[in-house]
């Protein structure tokens, strides 16, 4: 094969492969994901209702958790540490709550990104572990709940019970 034919073949392959890569580029969403407006901070009474519902679920299952409820800016409103909860759970629960409030999405979204090979959660300084959820009232983020003490799926169950306690 002549150098010219080889060069044309390589060029054609590169263009084909480049076109395939371009065709497979991810789509760009039309709207910003999780674009929920912020509202006034959750009241202490509402935070107590959230924590009470979460604690009831943890007790029903025999789990020991720390439950943190924060306002929309991530400021702590209520921290409840059940007897026997592991010592590190408080910081993790607070990190989950702050992450869910600041980014207006469940913390599992960041865990999924990491597990998918994306490193962006590390640069954002989030707590990329399931068990954190924004608290939404009248279409606005009024805070978030973070739960830690069990494995992620257990924390999620307890946190979701807390979210349901807001209603």
From TrEMBL:
Signal sequence bounds: 1-23
Keyword Chloroplast appears in the UniProt entry: no
A matching Pfam family: HbpS-like
InterPro entries from the UniProt entry: GlcG_carb_metab_protein, PduO/GlcC-like, PduO/GlcC-like_sf, TonB_box_CS
Keyword entries, A-Z: Signal
Protein name: Heme-binding protein
Lineage of origin: Bacteria, Pseudomonadati, Pseudomonadota, Alphaproteobacteria, Sphingomonadales
